[in-house]
Design brief:
The structure holds 2 protein chains of 2 kinds.
Chain A: H1 5-12, E1 27-34, E2 39-47, E3 54-62, H2 65-78, H3 83-87, H4 91-98, H5 105-125
Antiparallel strand pairs in A: 1-2, 2-3
Helix pairs in contact in A: 1-2, 2-5, 4-5
Chain B: E1 7-8, H1 19-25, H2 42-62, E2 69-72, H3 75-89, E3 96-100, H4 105-116, E4 120-124, H5 134-140, E5 145-149, H6 163-173, E6 176-180, H7 192-195, E7 199-203, E8 214-218, H8 247-285, E9 289-291, E10 302-307, H9 312-319, E11 323-324, E12 326-327, H10 340-344, H11 349-353, E13 355-359, H12 366-386, H13 388-394
Parallel strand pairs in B: 1-11, 3-4, 3-5, 5-6, 6-7
Antiparallel strand pairs in B: 2-8, 7-8, 9-10, 10-13, 12-13
Helix pairs in contact in B: 1-8, 2-8, 3-4, 8-12, 9-12
Classes of the chains: A alpha+beta, B alpha/beta.
Chain lengths: 138, 407
């Protein structure tokens, strides 16, 4: 399968790989996927409590090249934006940016789920009402 | 591509042609281009002679009579001809076929078609080593059973089945025994008659011959086996497979068989040493590396390994501009399912997703193996640094206790 240059770049030089202290109040952690399915993403955000903006984002992913690139790209996009803007990130944007082939679209869906799951975790910890977001369902 | 080095470790998918094979074929594209069925001019005679000679070369490799070789387009066609041909020919005797869950799709899908045609098929489980349970086989045989089909060695794991013992069971119950021997012919000694195998499918392109040509061995004596043709036409191949013979392909297949007769022992010995070197080095260099399938009953050139907590396709992307091999990961298949062969061995889906198959060949060098050891070790370490489940494993978290969101 021929992958785009951008995808290969994110795969070879993944951005923001790492682990945050998930016990911190301003850190939200999303863990989605399953080893049996061949992909697991853990995406974490650190929110600046004053501005409500995402200060930092980290990920680790078990999965194929597209899954790794999708989560790497997601962390890049998350840094510096508000939680609400983060909730609006759509998986199709990731598909476009990385030129994911049709069989790999589920990798972008998983990345969107990871973002939403990390935000939900942050909001729960901080007593913020978790907004009902449209579940991408897969 | 940042490195021109290309290493081919996917010889179970296909082998390159031996140059000696290609040299032999070339005249049959040009001056010796005749149709082997043309009986009334020298072009036809020369082609027929060449086909007869190749038939001998192939028969010699597997110790059978040349009249027992039916040429086909490959092993898939030979599997189909054997299974469907026996089913149709022996319908009055019974409609039951027994095979294994780990067979190649050419056998499994032909069996599914047979079920639609009114046949009954039993798909036997294998044990954790990939081996057949002989008691279960014997218990599955009924008075309706006409055929047992067991692949000689598995394409993904290289595991070799106890063929002689299966042959004895078939003999005892008067059931025909067929084998897909695609991965073994030309690699290790194969003698269907001494093993009790009545029909055997194999192909040129897994033994350094050309693609597009294969054969079915059909036993002619004790018992005399017949199959109903699946391709109708000019009555070629003693009526069992019509169609103009692929003369250059057959010539190449024959030459490949002759070379294999002479060289397979030394090839096997050299490759098993290289395979063991690769396997031992990877297991020594990293934790949580598992060999899939029986270590004892295995082809000398195959190694199927799982690198726990690393996904196979992602791992391959770390080096596959330089090294060609296969993975049991779902992401490398069109179906998005992990390898059914590895799953049948009782590997969890997670380990199946983490597998790589290394299949060495005649042109694999020690340098290739040394490079591969380094590249795989780097790749696995890189992927584990990225893997959240590897991190959890290192922290002592029980991965199985987590409630994963299946998707």
């Amino acid at each position: 399968m021929a992958y785009s240059e951008k995808l290969l770049d994110h795969f070879k030089n993944p951005r923001n790989v790492g682990t945050m202290d998930k016990s911190q109040k301003n850190v939200g952690t999303g863990l989605v996927g399953a080893p049996e399915c061949g992909d697991v993403m853990r995406l974490q955000i650190e929110v600046d409590e004053e501005t409500g903006k995402i200060k930092d984002a980290k990920f680790k992913t078990f999965g194929c090249g597209s899954a790794i690139a999708s989560s790497s790209l997601a962390t890049e996009w998350l840094k510096g934006i508000s939680v609400d803007d983060a909730l609006a990130i759509d998986n199709m944007k990731i598909v476009e940016e990385l030129a994911l082939p049709p069989v790999k679209i589920h990798c972008s869906v998983l990345a969107e789920d990871a973002i939403k799951s990390a935000i939900a975790d942050y909001q729960q910890k901080n007593g913020i009402e978790v907004k009902e977001t449209e579940k991408s369902g897969h | 591509m940042n490195n021109t080095r290309q290493i081919y470790l996917d010889n179970n998918a296909t082998t390159p042609c031996d140059p000696r094979v290609v040299d032999e074929m070339i005249p049959y594209f040009y001056e010796k281009h005749g149709n082997a069925a043309s009986r009334n001019h020298p072009f036809g005679w020369i082609a027929e002679e060449a086909v007869d000679y190749a038939r001998e070369q192939i028969a010699n490799l597997i110790n059978v009579d040349s009249k027992e070789i039916i040429f086909t387009s490959g092993a898939t066609e030979a599997d189909n001809l054997a299974l469907k041909g026996v089913f149709e020919m022996y319908q009055r005797k019974g409609n039951h076929i027994i095979t294994l869950k780990t067979e190649h799709k050419a056998v499994l899908d032909a069996c599914k078609k047979i079920e639609k045609m009114g046949g009954e098929v039993t798909y036997l489980d294998v044990d954790s080593e990939g081996l057949i349970d002989l008691k279960a086989l014997e218990a599955a045989i009924t008075d309706k059973t006409i055929l047992v089909s067991v692949m000689w060695a598995n394409n993904e794991t290289g595991v070799i089945q106890p063929m002689k013992k299966i042959g004895e069971i078939c003999e005892k119950h008067g059931v025909l025994f067929m084998s897909d021997a695609t991965q073994v012919v030309g690699k290790i000694p194969v003698d269907p008659k001494a093993t009790g195998v009545h029909l055997m499918a194999f192909t040129g392109h897994k033994m350094y011959g050309p693609k597009g040509v294969g054969a079915l061995y059909v036993c002619r004596k004790n018992p005399r086996v017949k199959v109903t043709a699946q391709m109708d036409g000019g009555g070629h191949e003693r009526g069992m497979r019509s169609g103009t013979l692929n003369v250059p392909g057959i010539v190449g297949f024959g030459k490949a068989a002759e070379i294999a007769s002479k060289e397979m022992h030394q090839d096997a010995e050299r490759l098993s040493k290289l395979r063991d070197k690769l396997e031992n080095a990877l297991i020594a260099a990293m934790e949580e590396v598992y060999i899939n399938g029986s270590k004892e009953h295995r082809m000398p050139h195959v190694s199927n390994l799982s690198f726990k907590h690393v996904e196979g396709e992602g791992l391959m992307m770390t080096f596959n501009q330089n090294i060609a091999l296969s993975s049991g990961s779902a992401c490398t298949s069109a179906s998005l399912e992990p390898s059914y062969v590895l799953v049948a061995l009782g590997l969890g889906d997670d380990l199946a997703h983490s597998s790589l198959r290394f299949s060495l060949g005649r042109f694999t060098t020690e340098e290739d193996i040394d490079y591969t050891i380094k590249a795989i070790t780097q790749g696995v370490n890189h992927m584990r640094d990225l893997s959240p489940i590897w991190e959890m494993y290192k922290e002592g978290v029980d991965i199985d206790s987590i409630e994963w969101s299946e998707h």
